[in-house]
Amino acid sequence: SPQRKPKITASRKLLLKSLMLAKAKECWEQEHEAREAEKSRYLAERIPALQTRGLSLSALQDLCRDLHAKVEVVDEERYDIEAKCLHNTREIKDLKLKVLDLRGKFKRPPLRRVRVSADAMLRALLGSKHKVSMDLRANLKSVKKEDTEKERPVEVGDWRKNVEAMSGMEGRKKMFDAAKSPTSQ
User: Where is the signal peptide (predicted)?
Assistant: First the structure.
């Protein structure tokens, strides 16, 4: 027989599970820190630090107008990207539904049992032009009742005696002996 692997004990399974969770948490934290560092690096690269010290009122107002204009441009880009994302998600959803329809794995409604005769079914399949009548009983073989009763002689006896006689090793031995030499007895 093939060698079976030993089962892991519950305490060992719990220990492994906790170790896996700790490792997953550590990886998640490292990924989060890396993402934050990348974000701050990108922002420092794209947006230089503001130098407002020593600027006059008109220079500060010009700076504010420039910043507002940049914010509007970025907001418009964000809106466009958001609209594209919504459009793409809708398109993906429609394509998934089409794939499901093509596969045939859509949810089927619960079907009711409807009694339909063979004639009505053939008429539905072949159309109303073809008049087909089908008597299913006409093609059946006729069997006389007396013939079936003669074929099977019925023995009525105590079934418990037969079960007791054939139970255990003696019954198996009798069956073996009977199969071995039916004419010797």
Answer: none
